[in-house]
Amino acid sequence: MTTAGTRPRPTSNLPVIANFDSAHLTIGAGVAIFHLATSRVVVCYHSKEKYWFLPKGRRDAGEDSGTGAEREGFEESGYRNRLLPIPLRHRQPQAHNSDAAVSPFAIEPVWTQLMPVTRSTQYMLFWYIAETLPPEIEQFLSQKSTQANGVYMVPPPYPATMTLAERIELDKKLAPVRHENTGVDADEALYESYLLSIDEAQQKLSGTIMADVVRTGWEAIQTRMEMEENSRSA
């Protein structure tokens, strides 16, 4: 499988104390969308300003950040997607009232960015890992969206019992669908999107945290596949 390269990794900044009321904070989410069967990832390109980026944007009012990441991924790239549970070090506790077995995989942001919008307004951006949808789900959601006059359809979550090897089998004969004209404004109409190899994506995104979003996601995907293979062999 494609490697994620040997470039130096960025490090987290020191913790900060800051306070923002709702009028001065914007919350957004972005996503690295992987096509597992071909070891590629979706990368967008601004055809006018000539730069590469991963799809991202503000979540809607009342929208969960993960759902916002999936929706922004679709609107800016044209690829329907769903968040992918991966082995990931994080600081979130497990639910105390759950009797379910604790999964070694989680859906949490792999990076969080804090960026000023204006001198008084802050932007908080969560980066997630996702996958393109299986053909049957893609077709089902596209039909529902057409019947609903183009309304965005939230995809079902990744099945808790499905291994990545089983998931890849569903995609071996069909390429993921890229929908046209999914942008919601004039700027997004200028976006192009491409499925690139992991190494090429990192090169296009070099110098940004997005390169490490791709790297972290791909390494986690490979780790999950190894864990599942070892579990089958045990």
Explain what this protein looks like in three dimensions:
- By secondary structure, the protein is of the alpha+beta class.
- It is built from five helices and eight strands.
- Strands 1, 2, 3, 4, 5, 6, 7 and 8 form an eight-stranded mixed β-sheet that branches.
- The longest helix is centred in the last third of the chain and has 25 residues, at 209-233.
- The mean pLDDT is 94.
Give short descriptive properties of this protein.
alpha+beta, 8-stranded mixed beta sheet, 5 helices, 27% helix, 22% strand
Form type: globular
Biggest sheet layout: 8 strands, mixed
Helical amount:
25-40%
Low-confidence stretches: none
- Rounded mean pLDDT is 94
Strand content: 15-25%
Structural class: alpha+beta
Rg over CA atoms, rounded to whole Å, is 18 Å
Terminal-residue CA separation: 23 Å
Element-level helix/strand string: EEEEHEEEHHEHH
Number of H- or I-type helical stretches? 5
Q: Count of DSSP E strands?
A: 8
